[in-house]
Design brief:
117 residues, alpha+beta, 5-stranded mixed β-sheet, 27% strand, globular
Length: 117
């Protein structure tokens, strides 16, 4: 499968540890949205969050805003809140390879397709 171009500022979130086939949309959103270490300059620029498992995009969300993680033991981590879905976003990216940002077997937990300036 040929890598595609990700249009916009994406954060790629490795959800491999918690992902399972047959998860509901709500479960997938819940494991994707929370408990990430994201620098302020990244949070300000991220437009989309992609849940990646096995090198493939399993879900993609338009990020409305970031807020401190609500779980006390995860202080210092961040979670995003989803904005209204954008037409065609899911169809364009779900099932596509996340390479070169997060190829199969990647040990990275968080990757970006843009630089922090």
């Amino acid at each position: 499968m040929k890598p595609i171009t990700f249009a916009g500022n994406f954060v790629f979130l490795n959800v491999s540890r918690l992902y399972r086939v047959g998860m509901s949309e709500a479960e997938l959103y819940d494991i994707t949205r929370q408990a990430w270490r994201v620098a302020p300059c990244r949070r300000e620029r991220v437009q989309y969050a992609a849940a990646v498992q096995g090198g493939l995009v399993r879900a993609v969300y338009r990020v409305r805003r970031w807020r401190p993680c609500a779980v006390p033991k995860l202080a210092g981590r961040w979670e995003f809140e989803q904005a209204a879905p954008e037409a065609g976003l899911r169809e364009r990216y779900v099932g596509q390879p996340a390479a070169p940002y997060m190829p199969p077997g990647s040990r990275f937990v968080v990757q970006y397709n843009f630089e922090c300036r």
